[in-house]
# Entry
Amino acid sequence: MADKKRILSGMRPTGPLHLGNLHGALANWIDMQERYDCFFFIADWHALTSSYENTETISDYVKQMMIDWLSAGLSPEKCTLFVQSHIKEHAELFLLLSMITPVPWLERNPTYKDQIVQLASKDLSTFGFLGYPVLQAADIIIYKADGVPVGVDQVPHVEITREIARRFNYLYGDTFPEPQAMLTETAKILGWDRRKMSKSYDNAIYLSDSTEQVMEKVSKMITDPARKRKSDPGNPEICNVFDFHKLYSPQPLVDEINQQCRQAEIGCVACKKKMAKNLIAFLDPIREKRHHYEERPELVAELILAGGSKAREVAQQTMEEVRAAIRI
# Structure
C-alpha cells in the first residue's frame, strides 16, 4: 500500500442504505478501493451530533451498514473498514484540535448554518454540533489521508480540515499533510416521489428491499406529469422512471423506451415493469450477499474487529507523533 495514495471517508449510521447512498458515495468507494489505500469508517459519534436524544438504534445501524457495505462490494482485503468509536484516538485528537480551532471558523461553516434551519425542530445548540468539523478533521488527518472523496457541496468541510491541519503545523511543526478534496461524479437519482431520495422523506428504495417492496415502490413512481393517457406522447427527460432506466436497463432498451414514450407506443405501467425487472436484477446479487452476512453475524463482528485493529495501529502511531509535537 505504500505506493498508493491514501483516502478516507465515512458515513453516519442513521438507517439502512438506499440507492441514493450507493450512487452518491458507495459506488465510488468500491471503484477507489482498487486504486487507493482506502480507509472507510462508520461515523457513529457523528450520528450523535443531531440524534443524541435517540441512541437506541445506532448499534444495530452500525452492523447493518457494515453488511450493506460488504454486500455492495467493499472488500476487507482491499480496504480498511472500521467503526469510528472503536478508535479512541479520534476522540483524543479531537480534544487537542479543539484547543486550537477558532470558533468563527466553525460558525461560518455553511453546513452548520443550513442544518440549523433545516433541523429547526431539534435542539442543536450544543458544542458537539458546532464542533463536528473538528471531529471530522481528526477523523481525516489522524490517518494522514491524501484525499477525501466528496461532492461539490462538501468541499467546505475539507477546507476546514486543511485549515486546522495548517494551524497545527504552524504551531507545533509539520505533522499532518493537508488533504485534498477529491470531487466525485455521482449519478442523478431521486426518490419515487421525485424529491431527493432520503430516509426522512420515506421515498427511498433500499439495498435490502425485497422484490415485492421494489415493485410496490416502482409502481408509485412519478412519471411525466403532462402525460395523462397512454395515447399522449411523453417526454422521457422529465420522467423519473426513465432516469432509472438509464441506470439499470441495457442501452438498447433505454433507446427503445425513449422512442416509444415519445411516440405514445408504451404506457407508463408497462415502462415501470420493464425498469423494475432490471432494477431487481441489479439488486439480486447484493441481496444474495446480504443474506450470506446476515446468516453469519459472528463473521461480521470479526471483520469489524479486524478493520478496527488495522485502523488503530495507524491512529496510535499518529498520536505518538502528535504528543511529541505538543510536548505532552
DSSP finds 14 helices and five strands in the chain. Strands lie at 6-11, 37-42, 79-83, 147-150, 180-183. The radius of gyration is 22 Å.
